Structures are given as structure tokens and as C-alpha cells.
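Our working data are protein records whose layout never changes between entries. Getting from the letters to the C-alpha cells is the skill we practise here. To make this concrete, we reproduce a full record directly below:
***
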Amino acid sequence: MLTLLIFLLWLTLLSFEGWLIAGFVVAKMDQWLRGSLALPFAAIANVLVIFVFTVLGVPLALLTLGAAHIAIAAVLFIISRKSGILYAGERDMELRPWTKKQKILGLVCSILLANAFIFSAVHSVVLPSLSIDIFTNWTMRSKVSWSDRAIAFDRSEARGVAKPQYPFLVHGLQIAVNEGNQIWSDRAANTVTWLLTISSFAAAFLVLRKLRGTFMALCTLSAMALIPMMTIHLSAGYGDIHLITYGLLSFLALAVAVEHDKRWLAFSAVMVLGALWSKSEGLYFVFIPWVCALVILGWKQELSKSSLVKNILISCLPFLPFLAFLILKGLSLTPHESDGTFGIKWEGFSALPHALFGSGSFGVLWYALIIVIIGILLRNKKNPSLLPGTWYFALLLMALLSLLGVLFVYLFTPNVGFLLNGQSFYRQMLLPAAMLISWIAISLPRTSSSTMVESD
């Protein structure tokens, strides 16, 4: 009971802090969206606090972490009250009713989504140690750091915490909600990362709703969540699912920024920062593709160059000290020591078609994505008036560069072994898949009109 109380107190504090941060990043945001983003924003704030404590040698304890977050929340609350943005927001209002076919399909999608999320809840909350690699490997590293009262940087597997150069957003969140406990709780650690995953997907749904209406958002989220590998990883644990959600939110927020409101570019930038802190692959699979998309948007004058520079700095500047920290400690910038050797891995090229189209991990996903994307491009070439805007090519570029980044890692580095044995390749391909599914939804006509109504 005490563990549950401590967990709920931490969850309340972190969520309140994240809710306040969301209000600063985008001054007028739908309150449901702001609430769903509370934990994703709080996780970023928490990892920054823990990194500062790590550098300064401050022990990770209830008093230090609690005082830091209470102070941050108090300052943000005072400033938000004085600036008048505490409760400022807007909401989407559907004006066009669904057709009968849409209602039937929407019901089917809702049932399938509920089944996927119930499955993930059971595996994360009810049976938190069911999967050895998900709930022992990652959570064990968090447990050791919690016991040490400092992030562990072991260089061997003696305590199960090697590969310390994984950015520790997940570890930091699991450590925080266990501060105050006398005994480590796997259930608390895995529940908070599951909540981070689910709240991030809820936020993705609400951003898609803003872009293309509720029906399209529901269908799009269903297509993502029901990819067999995605359904499994909704149970959280691996840092890849958080890399996926932060990368997806950065992609969707960028779409809102260029189609509706330039202020959302800051939101997109902060989500890129979250991807960097989730896993080192965020540098290659999210940050670089995102910057390339911004360069295209600046060139097409969709966004101002000064805004681009400012937000690029927001997305990476708080992460650069971590890279410098690793160098000073003599650690690799990647958790895989052999990644520095490059060359064509022919065995990967022969295994790739089977991995994408024949192994069953993705089902018909990549067949469908290729066919639909080509169809949309051909349709828009014949009917340019159907284009939602030239910016949608920049979003497609971001998704494709993310895809190419994953393929490069597994076809030109020793990581080809993880393609051959069916490990990390499959789950990291989920990020470009989610982006491409979202791009398809954004490229289609809006299914229901909406307007923004400012709330009191």
C-alpha cells in the first residue's frame, strides 16, 4: 500500500510538472492533449535533472529528486499564473457526423485497440516480470542505479548493467517513482513506463485528430498499434517504444506547425530531444531526418530560417553535454562497441527481403505501405489540387530518411547480426513504419471538419 501511495504521489507531481511545461511550449493547446503530454514532457525534465545530478555528484534520493521537481513545478506554476497561460487552451469540435460505414469501422478499430492496450496493461502492470529481456534487462539497470543512488556506469555484465551509454530517460523515470521505497518495485517501474507509452499514443491520436479528424486518427492509430511487433512493445520496457513515440510525436507536431500553427515547431523540437534521451539511435533515426526536413521547409520558405535555427538548438543543445560526458568518461557514443566499422554486409542484403516481406513479423505491412505511398504520389501528380501542401514532401523525406537510417545501421555495420537473428532490427523498423502510416493519413483528405474554440 505504501508503494502504491508513493507511486501515485510521484505520478501526480511529475504529471503536474509536465502539464505546466506543455503549456509553456505551446501556449494554447487542447487540454486533453496537454494532459496526455504531461508524462512525456515530465520524463524529459526528469532525465535532465538526473543528468545534472550525475555530473554534480548529487545522490539520487527522495529528498534531492523530490525537492528538485517540487521547485521546478512551483516556479512554473507561479510564472504560468502571472502570464495567464495556466488554463488557456483550445479544443477541437467535430462538425460533420460520421457515416454509417465510418461508425462500423470506428467500432471495429476501437475494439481492436482496446484489446491491444489491455494486453499491454496485463503484461506491464499485472505481470511485470513476464518477459526476461524487457522487464529484467532494462529494469535491472534501473534497480542497480537506484541502489547506488547514482546512474551506474558498469563496463561489464557482472551486475547486469553494461551498456551505460544508453540515454537514461527510461531509467530515470523508473528510479524517480521508486524513491521513497525501502524495496525496489518492478511493478512501479514498469507501470510508469507503460503509462508513458500509452499517454504518448493518446497524444499522437489527439494530434492526428487535429490534423485530419477523429475517424482518420482512430484508423491511423489502429494501423500502428496493431502491427504485431508494436502490440508486443506497447507493454513497454525497451527504450525503442519510447524512441518510436517521441519520434512519431515530433513528426506529427511538425505537420501541425507547417499546416496550422508555427508555434508547434517548438513542440516538435522538444519531442526530438525526448527521442535523443530515449536511446542513442534517436540521433540517426529522428534528429538527422528531422533537421533535413526543416532544411527543406526553410528552403521552400514554409518556415523562417531564424525559427529553424532556434528550434534545432532546442532539440539538441540539452543533449550535447551528455555526449561530452560520455567522451570524458572514455565511453563509446553508442552502446555497440563495434559500430565504428563500416562496410557492405552482403548477408544482410540477402536477409532483408525475408525480414520485411516473408518472416511474418510485419505481415502485409510493407507491401501495403509501398503500394499506398506510390498510389498517393501518382494521384497527386495527376491532380496537384489534391496536395495538402508542398510541405508534405518534407514530411515524407523525414520518414524515408528514418527508414534509410535503420537500413544503413543493419546493412553497413556489424549490427547486421541483429537483423540475422531477428532482434532489434524488427522493433526499430517500427519507427519509420509509424511515420509512413501517419504520412499516408496526412496526405488524404480530412474526413470531418473541425474548428478551434478557445477555452476560458
Summary: The radius of gyration is 21 Å. The CA atoms of residues 442 and 448 lie 13 Å apart. The longest strand covers residues 90-94.
